[in-house]
Amino acid sequence: MDGFLGWAARLGAGEVVAGALLLNAVLFVAAVAAGRALVRRYGDRRVAPPPGPVTGAEVALTVVALLINSGVGVAGWALWKAGLVTLSASTGPRVLLELLAFTLVMDVLAYAAHWIAHRRRLYRLAHELHHRYPDPRPSTLFVLHPLEALGFGGAWLAILTVWELSALALGGFVLLNLVFGLLGHLGVEPLPARVRRRPVFRWVALPMFHVGHHLDPGVNFGFYTTVWDRLFGTVDPAYDRMRHAVDPAAARLPDALQSPA
C-alpha cells in the first residue's frame, strides 16, 4: 500500500483527471452490466414495475453525474496532495473496522440528508428529479440532480479532512456504496426468502428497501441500514412482511387484498 500511495503522489494533474474519468466510466459499465444480469436472472422476483425506455434526459443526467464523481475524485487527490486529507497505508483487520465505522457515519448522514431533501421546499430544488423515475433500473443510481451528486461527494470529502482513513478502507467504501446503490435500483430482489429472513437483514438494507422508497417516497430514507428508519418510524410498514415473504411484491399488498395461501 505504501507503494501505491507513493505512485499516486507522483501523478500529474492531467493523469489524475484522465484516470478519474476512466475509473468512473469502468465502474458505470461494470455496474450496469452486473445489474442487467441480475435483473434477467431474478426477473421473477420483481418488486417494482418494469421501467420504460431510457430517455435522453436520463442519459444526460448520468453523464453529468459521472463527470461530477470524477471531479470529486480529483478534488480528493488534490486535498490529499495538499495535506488536508490524510490516508494511511494500514492493512489487516483495522481496515475492516475503519470501513464499518466510516459506512455507519455516512449512513446516518445519508439518512438525515435524504429526509431533509424530502421537505417540501427543498424537494423541488433537487431531489424531485430522481423521483421522476419511480420504476428503477440499474442506471437509475446515476440519475441525480447535479446538486445531489455534489452534495454526497462533498460530504465524504469533508469527513476525510478530519478523519485519517486507510486507503484500503476508502476504496472499500467506494465499492460498497456502488454495490448498495446498484442493488437498490434493480427493481428485483435477488436474495431468496431464506436469506432475507436472517436477523442481520433486519438491520442491513435489502435491495427491496430502497425500491420501496421509489414506490412510496415517504418511507425508507436509509441507504445502507434500516436502523434510522426503525428508530424514527419511517420504515415501510410492509417491509418486514415483504422481507419474510417468498413473493415480496404480493406481500406489499394490504392483508385484505392478498390472495389466500
From TrEMBL:
Subcellular location: Membrane
TM regions (residue ranges): 16-39, 59-79, 99-117, 138-159, 165-188
One Pfam family hit: FA_hydroxylase
Keywords, comma-separated and alphabetical: Membrane, Transmembrane, Transmembrane helix
InterPro entries: Fatty_acid_hydroxylase, Sterol_Desaturase_Related
Fatty acid hydroxylase domain mapped to chain residues: 100-234
Broad class of the protein's primary localization: membrane
PANTHER family: STEROL DESATURASE
Protein name (Swiss-Prot/TrEMBL): Fatty acid hydroxylase domain-containing protein
Organism: Kitasatospora arboriphila
